[in-house]
Amino acid sequence: MAVNLQQTVARNTSSTTSVTTTLVSSPTTGNIIVAVVGANVSNTATSMSTPATGWTKVVAQDTNGANNTTIFARVVGAG
User: Fold this and answer.
1) Partner of 27 for a Cys bridge, out of 7, 32, 40, 76, CB 3.0 to 4.6 A?
2) Cα–Cα distance between 55 and 35 in angstroms, integer?
3) Which of 31-50 are b and which e, b meaning 16 or more Cβ less than 10 Å from the residue's Cβ?
4) Radius of gyration of the chain (CA)
């Protein structure tokens, strides 16, 4: 099974509690969308919860006062 990168989108936002993005083109049904979200908040526990319905938290590194990273994934459905 081959894995092909279709597109990437980067956002650099400070002081926000949510992140959204617009894909360059619509993803194909059955493809997987992967979102890697990071935060660097000194001396504060930062927890990234699961976003909208259909997304799954794959892995999370939530620590106190460090670079926190969470990876979310979603299989693209029809429509």
Assistant:
1) 76
2) 9
3) eeeeeeeebeeeeeebebee
4) 14
Instruction: Enumerate residue ranges in the chain where pLDDT < 50.
Output: none
Q: What is the pLDDT of residue 9?
A: 72
Half-sphere exposure of residue 72: CA atoms within 13 angstroms, side-chain side? 14
What is the per-residue DSSP string for the chain? --------------S-S------SSPPPTT-EEEEEEEEE-TTSB------STT-EEEEEE--BSSEEEEEEEEEPPP-
CA distance 65 to 57: 21
Q: Among candidates 25, 16, 47, 21, which has minimal Cα distance to 35?
A: 21
> What per-residue confidence (pLDDT) applies to 45?
54
